Amino acid sequence: MSAGGGPRAIRVVLADDEALVRAGVRAILDSDPEIEVVGEAGDGREAVDVVLEHRPDVVLMDVRMPVLDGIAATGEIVEVAPGTGVLMLTTFSDDHYVAQALELGADGFLLKTGDPRELAVGIRAVKAGGAYLSPQVAKRVIRAYGGTRPGSRAVRAREARNRVEGLSGREVEVLRLIGAGLSNAEIAARLHVVEGTVKAYAGALFKHLGVRNRVQVAIIAHHANLVDDSP
């Protein structure tokens, strides 16, 4: 892409201990001219090494892998390669890992058995600085994250509303749009402001809410009932 003067392809690393899964994901991504798979890894330790070698935009990270699992690998990548977004590949049995991944800085979640077209959508969202929650996994992610805190859904909603108190009207609107899964560029277009302004609002939200990434911001928006959760 860049050789012809166009935008640089989104650089991706695949991390999964099943070679057949990696081959399938690579085949899907290779069909997209805007995405380039620059490396693969069969375990979490190798994933960290490959990310350090290639410095990709996004790593697709399986949760369950040998040597170092995807959760621990995510924590290391967030620390040593903060410019790389981490998109977790989960299964229906991985819910108890979700909260850990969120706390460590994962940027999104895809269901391994979901729509293959979501791979490119999620990768683009994370590359653009957004958080991506697959529609099939979003409510499970929100529920799993909330499950790490004591109290009922009503209690969590009250806690979230308390955390949102003190935000300006525009900050609440940015919070709502992050919760809806929009990237900075999409929010800027929606609010008719420049992208740098949205980044400033997002940074202020991170500080005010005491969170590390956009997925956590999105979850607070959902718990505070700022986002329509209806299917």
From TrEMBL:
Coiled-coil stretches: none
Domain HTH luxR-type, first and last residues per copy: 160-225
Domain of life (superkingdom): Bacteria
SUPFAM superfamilies: C-terminal effector domain of the bipartite response regulators, CheY-like
Keyword set, alphabetical order: DNA-binding, Phosphoprotein, Transcription, Transcription regulation
Pfam family, one: GerE
Ranges for domain Response regulatory: 11-127
Residues with the 4-aspartylphosphate modification: 62
Keyword Nucleus: no
Protein name per its UniProtKB record: Response regulator
